Predict the structure of Sugar ABC transporter substrate-binding protein.
Amino acid sequence: MRSKSSTIRTHRTVTALAALLAGALALSACSSSDKDRKGSGEKTGGATGSTVSLPKLNGASLEIAAVWTGQEQKNFKQVLAEFEKRTGAKVTFVPAQDPIINFLGSKIAGGQPPDVALLPQPGAIRQAVQRGWAKPLGPEALKELRKNYSQGWQDIGKVDGKQYGVYYKAANKSLIWYNAKVFEGAGAKEPKTWKDLLGTARAVYDSGVTPFSVAGADGWPLTDWFENVYLSQAGPEKYDQLAQHKIKWTDPSVKQALTTLAQLWGKKEYLAGGQDGALQTEFPASVTQTFTGGDQPKSAMVYEGDFVQVNIGETKAKVGTDAKVFPFPAVGSTAPVVSGGDAAVILKDSKAAQALATFLASPDAATIQAKLGGYLSPNRNVAVTAYPNAVQQKIAKALIASGDDFRFDMSDQAPQAFGGTPGKGEWKDLQDFLKNPADLAGAQAKLEKDAAAAYGSGS
């Protein structure tokens, strides 16, 4: 069992953000023109447009590692290019593999750790600290962090009260994206409850289009599906208890959530390619096949976070018109709001590494990537108008307005062996459940066995 300090205690309720998102996304707002965005002048958190002060680092070289690929990696490299321009340092992006803790362990064992790593789980930050890899943030980075982040986002990056992480990137993982043309043809409406979602799926199916793409080849989207259903159905207190393994995965509340998921996952005709096809569908393809194919795409809807927009950008669909979005429907009394994120953690302490962490904590860095799309920052001093379309602007505004009222991704809070390793733990167990959604008891037994082993070892 992990210590109490490893859990996130500041995120109290989902109600406020759920209400904000429901209102903000109900219209699935159409994209704003550049002219409209420049003219509105709307900002979050009183952004001042000030520029973070950075030292001159001529001749310094840095490596930063992350698991990001494709367009996301390309966009982040533009942020690094700005840091290079301002400081004179040279920054190399190092593509990492999941689980990143194992990747970093190999690099450290070989005497070649990156200077900074972007860690996608609070559990990974704790592991990096426990193994003596992570270095605390210096005064300049702390100053920038405290100026730009709510207390909740600061606390997620702490271990035993000391600040190690800067949450450069956030994710709203409680969104379902849909093909507007298919919905129009089916006469389908945006659902507000799980029952409504099943009705919408039926209407889409009756119109001749498969309702959902599910990225079963990647285990992590399956954990996100579960977390949204569980949070809405079991409530925040149970969610926190399961995240800390204070209740077992054999608990009746887990059975109830899996039973609810099986209402969709158990209908072969509702999944693009059926269960077998879903298990061969990787996340990028789950998105692109929803927004290609004209009137007959492979699916009408795809569940995942705001970052889906990066993959929609690889199609001809336009966010806000062809590709719209609604909040994950309420399964219980309240719609869920699950968040995730990636934190910059220093592994080789130096003036240059601290400067990079300071830059990533600033609105300057986040604004660059916000303008490129498919990105959401928890930095409250990034102007809403930096985001490239009205849908993303409203998602960003709701996130910042929520303050600390959300729940962080449960699998990201777990030890990596359970919640963050391809082909193992929760990822594999939910893949097995997707293949056979009738086996509720078997799924619960596997989940509890793997959770007990991982939490017991802390790995």
Notes: The chain is about 45% helix and 10% strand. Confidence is low (pLDDT under 50) at residues 1-24, 26-49.
